[in-house]
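Table 4 source record.
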Amino acid sequence: QVQLVESGGGLVQAGGSLRLSCAASGGTFSSYAMGWFRQAPGKEREFVAVISWSGGTTYYTDSVKGRFTISRENAKNTVYLQMNSLKPEDTAVYYCAARNYRGPISLKPQEHDYASWGQGTQVTVSS
């Protein structure tokens, strides 16, 4: 199982930007599809973005399309989430997750497909 550690969260004003990073260790990173999920206070965890093992395919939840970008550097065992034009409703704990899978990724990934999870990083957007 790959181990994941997120970083880059923090407090930002609405309209600002943050870049989250997720460093992986203990596995062959290029064999994993990688996802970002988030959980806001009092809400269930939800899908945010996913990227295939090669980086060639990405999907986003509708609420972040055009504002967030997921990317990966397999040579650095790292996946990123660039978040621009942040809104207060983006406030949540953000988790990265790994799925040992090299096939086509789903438009709406299911949490149960992701065996490895990071500890989460808090993102707070003030109005």
